[in-house]
Design brief:
By secondary structure, the protein is an alpha+beta fold. It has eleven helices and four strands. The longest helix is centred in the last third of the chain and has 32 residues.
Length: 280
């Protein structure tokens, strides 16, 4: 009969070329990698954390593969056949993703670092203010599985992979976003589309001004030759620019892409300024 002490002393099989943390820098060097370790070590599963950390340090994790929001890993334990570990992050839904993209693209101090390869420290608290978590609640928003026979969940093999995931975060600052279902490519695409829209807006603005200049040509309007000095009402600007136009709205015959109300507001403002200059 084999004693229980034999099982307790029997350690994992040694691995050649397993994944290990940096000998001097540890599991993480960036703030986001360290944040991940901080979250992991906040759980009150002391012995399993110690065992998993030892597995990670000793290089028992043979392989880590990230695809979409899933991470698959191979961990060598005490048995001949290595164990398969699966981690699955909870993806943001489309509404949340859209909100995150809007927050990032509207803040240069968030977008700039991301594009240049850094996760801005301000991102997590800003998202939290909008009730969005950048880092998931481990073991609540993170699904885990391991092929080992252990009844403890998470087991030391899962914890070993979670520790080494900090190395992956260090290497790719956008990985946490990818695991949430949002890629940097999507963010860049949105920025590009917004820039194209801005170009269109500027083009329309130029077209509006060109049309306004045509309307203000000497032969188009007689008002340039009018003596307005006798009109007392001109000495004051109206409190609201183009108020009647705003009330009436665009005429049904208007077919231009140029916004009628905005154009008329600009024309009203021009004549208001011009008339004041004439009446002085």
């Amino acid at each position: 009969m084999v004693s229980n002490n034999w099982f307790m002393s029997y350690g994992p099989r040694s691995v050649q070329g397993g994944i290990k943390p940096h000998p001097n820098k540890g599991f993480a060097t960036t703030w986001w990698g360290k944040k991940w370790i901080e979250i992991l070590e906040s759980f009150q599963i002391t012995q399993r954390l110690l065992n998993g950390k030892r597995y990670a340090k000793d290089g028992q994790v043979m392989e880590i593969d990230v695809k979409g929001n899933k991470i698959s890993a191979i961990v060598q334990g005490s048995r001949l056949t290595p164990y398969e570990v699966i981690l699955e992050f909870e993806k943001w839904d489309d509404r949340v993703k859209s909100k995150v993209v809007d927050i990032i693209t509207s803040n240069g101090y968030l977008l700039g670092p991301l594009v240049t390869g850094e996760l801005p420290r301000e991102l997590a608290p800003i998202l939290m203010k909008n009730k969005i978590k950048l880092f998931p609640d481990l073991f609540k928003e993170l699904k885990t599985s391991c092929t080992c026979p252990s009844s403890s969940k998470p087991c030391k093999h899962i914890i070993a992979v979670l520790y080494l995931l900090a190395l992956e975060f260090d290497r790719d600052p956008t990985l946490i976003l990818n695991l949430r279902g949002l890629s940097l490519a999507e963010i860049k695409k949105t920025v590009k589309e917004e820039r194209e829209e801005n170009k269109q807006d500027k083009k329309l603005d130029i077209e509006q001004r060109q049309l306004l200049l045509k309307l203000l040509e000497k032969d188009s309007l007689c008002l340039r030759e009018c003596d307005l000095s006798k009109l007392e009402s001109i000495s004051k600007k109206p409190p609201v620019n183009a108020l009647n136009i705003k009330r009436l709205g665009s005429p049904p015959f208007w077919r231009s892409e140029i916004d009628f109300i905005e154009l008329m507001k600009e024309i009203y403002k021009y004549f208001s300024d011009w008339a004041q200059d004439k009446s002085v």
